[in-house]
Amino acid sequence: MKSPAITSAISAREWFLLYLLSLLWGSSFLFFELSLDGLPPLTIVAIRMVLGASFLLAILQQRRIVLAQVGAHWRRCLLFGLIGAALPFACFAYAQVYITSSLAAVLNSTMPMFTFLIASAIGQEKFSALRLLGTVLGIIGVAILVGPSAQGNLAETVGALLCLVAAVLYAINTVAMRAWPGQMDASSLALGLCIGAAAVSVAAAVAIEDVNLAAAGWKSLAGAIGLGVLGTACAYRIFFYLLVRIGASNVSLCVLLIPVNAIPLGVIFLGEQLAISFFIGTAIIILSLMLVDRGISDSISRLIRKRG
């Protein structure tokens, strides 16, 4: 299956899909919160990944070719599924026991900063002063967000740190996927990641938690289903579709939009109360992400050179 050529221009249809992707991933934090009302964290992740893999397999075309690629690269799928889904999803599930969905969504958006630091450290990306400035601003924004919690609530601090660990894991997975070339196309990579994460998360949930789906309420199960079908299968399908068409740099713009969708959902449906420091920290992080984004930072650099 030959992938289409990547283009830097984003069509109206691709902008719509980019926003839809941010909405699906932004709603995942709401679904996590609903699921935690009656299900333990690892069980939620297991349900999410099993449903995600099953639904993704059902909607994919050329299943035999896709499954053949997944089988041929099962070690890679297991690794990417562990680092890029099972572990970070578990971090967020445990984190949202202690912190709001809005805070989790904003801390999740720090992933591009860690990706830049790791990729620059190993020589995968060129160092940029503007992107470094963006990273420093991002750290300041995180400090403003987490600062009030760190002063008097250890549980909330731990929850925030778990979100940052998840963002680092996402970054490591992103760098690893770039550095490990292979013959997997977008559909195979999406399905393989889901299957690998499902295998790990199911094993962990059965070994660690007392799984009793019959005791969970409809709200918890609905949240878990939303995570699996919308936040995983549909989101990954769109993500890898866009990845092969507009490239990683353009797809990363989605990260800027996730808090824009997640915060109103948390306020409207969960009644979350947000302090002024939350909005200040969030604004600084969004500004930092704009500087860290390679496409935006390169445009700013060219503009400065022209004026200079």
Computed Rg: 19 Å
Share of helix among residues? over 70%
Please state the average pLDDT score.
87
- Count of beta strands: 0
Broad shape? globular
Please tell me about this protein's structure.
The structure is a single chain. By secondary structure, the chain is mostly helical. It has one domain (23-121, 156-275). 81% of the residues lie in helices and 0% in strands. Helix 1 (12-35) packs across helix 5, helix 2 crosses helix 10 (218-251) and helix 5 packs antiparallel against helix 11. It is globular and about 65 Å long.
Describe the SSE topology:
Elements: H1 12-35, H2 41-59, H3 63-72, H4 74-95, H5 101-108, H6 111-121, H7 129-152, H8 154-179, H9 186-208, H10 218-251, H11 254-270, H12 276-292, H13 294-307
